[in-house]
Model the fold of this input.
Amino acid sequence: MFKAVQEGKLNVFLTAPNADTNAGTLVKLGPSGSVVVCNAGDEPFGVLAQDVRNRNVNNFKLDSVTHLAFYGEKVGVYFQGGEYYTDNIAGGSFAEGAKLYVGANGQFTSAVPGTGFSGNVAIAETAGSGNTKTRISFVK
Done:
């Protein structure tokens, strides 16, 4: 789940990854204008604004209603700030004001990565725990 409260900048010119990926996933820039899901220690470009799915799978819904992006096609990516609700947070509980970092599989986490990029990418606006709806302020 990922919902914008106050949007940061939105880039709509990048290409979606070729894998099912949910909105709210941290991504970095890949080759030829594509985005790739981040792992711990990667420096993110932003966070996916749309779910990404395979166009060949019939989901019986209109694209304009689901706001889906499809493999290899253009996808929205929020970057440079904004406030959002997300449940894409791994790990245990965290306090209001906690710094959030890049975790495995593009998730936010309160654990500082051991290697690579170790700057925080968001701040928890509300206290919570992993996989619960939390308001965050994206600072990357």
Observations:
- The chain has one helix and 14 strands.
- The radius of gyration is 14 Å.
- The longest strand covers residues 9-15.
